[in-house]
Amino acid sequence: MWRRRSLLTYRYLAPQFRPPVLSFTHPSTNVSSNIRRRRVIPPQFHHYNNPFFSSSSSHRNDDDEGFVSSSSAAKEDVEAVMACLLNFGANAAEARRRLESCRSVAVNHDLVREVLSRVRNDWSASYTFFLWAARGGHSHGAREYHLMISILAKMRRFDTAWALVHEMNAMVTPHTIMILVRRYCASHDVARAIDAFYSLKRFGFKPAVDDFHRLLSALCRYKNVPEAEQFLLCNAGSVFPSETKGFNIVLNGWCNVAVSPREAGRFWRHMAARDVARDAHSYASIISCYSKVGCLRDVLKVFDEMKLCGVTPNRKVYNAVIYALAKGRRTREALDLIQLMESEEGGNIDANTITFNSLIKPLCTARQADDAWTAFNQMLRRGLTPSVQTYHALFCVTRTSNEAFELFNRMKQMGCPPTTETYTMLIRTFSRRLEHENVQRLWDGMCNDGPGPDRSSYVTLIHGLFLNGRLEEASKYYQEMKAKGFTPEPRTDEMVGAWLDGKALLGKTKGQPLARMSHGHQKFGDYPKPEGLQGMEFHNTHLYESN
Fold it and tell me: Where are the domains positioned within the chain?
């Protein structure tokens, strides 16, 4: 049960059956026939974005403020800079010396954005390069400042980030401040998030309704839903208009972040008591909440109530109901609903990538691999581009490493670059299977050609190495993680510390029996899930993304 925390301490208060194999009207075209007939019990992964509320056209993590590779940057110059920054955490002084001697590089905006995008998980290397790039007469633009501020704030280097904000002068926009607001929310420092929000006035901006909604969205996204609700109720109707959109953001927080039907129902009734109109977005949130906890009966009840109230279902509502039906193993009814939404009676709403994700993910969770691959093939025949969430679901029904890497390569070939979460998920899978060569292959790919490792990646790798008995390597990556400024989890500290203590004691005893240590650490085989991945369970409060 969610405990209500007061904002007074803050500076500013204001019936089931086995479904048949999916059949579509179009002739079948198998994309991967050697995969789709195989089935396996997949490991449980919990970090998919909400299939109803995530964008199908974008593969970018919302935490990455505009980190998009720039094809305009000269490849030779980018590679030269990256070579200088190589192993920055292990030997920062040597990396800085190499960078200072790199005089042939033509610094421009594209180069800065590309390099920052590649090293964004190493704040020290990013900041060193950012300062170096400005020494030769190059002036950073607002976008480069935003990228650097986002990197620093993500690593909680807020003082340095604020220094850059003041350095920007006239280039500061409300978006600049909202980057810091989101990162304060991510670190659960609600007081400073609200303080940063009101600092808009100090930079000559009046907080607008859209900024207010962005603050609520950031609070909810990072599980500060009680605070978001209280801030909404203190300001809606007095400082800001009492609009449905603001209430929908908090409702979505209770429904899809907290996933609390009790609190969602309470807030749903509160909206009615305040005469706040409930629109299709409101119904989509409450329906998805019930579907996640397996209350299919309530999903259908609210769906019928919505139509009786004269609210026309939109694509988000249909996607939520399709997900609930597929999760309840009523696949045929889910397919019928897709046909209904595309008919004139249903509003002529075309199924999109998110619609098929709503169907594919529960099929993969239910180990219905054939049906999932059939839906995937139908999705491709319609000309829809699979998203990261599509592939993450399908990875769960791959049985062997060859199947997983075949899908991984297809993902890249189809213009959907793997994210850090993709690499982390696969590293965790192969670590459980004791396939260390594949783990190292993925790690090298992520470091050399991918987005680079983050805190969760390091924690997953270290725990996987312990699981595989590679303790020396685990200790090496543990030191590398700390050198890059990532804070290890307490459990990781305990594991590595216990091993180092035991190693030192073993050296002293020279082969004598090692006494049981009382560190309270867990067995190496007890392979926990990193905390950094727990905030990724269907979390997306951007309720108004275009479909």
Answer: 60-172
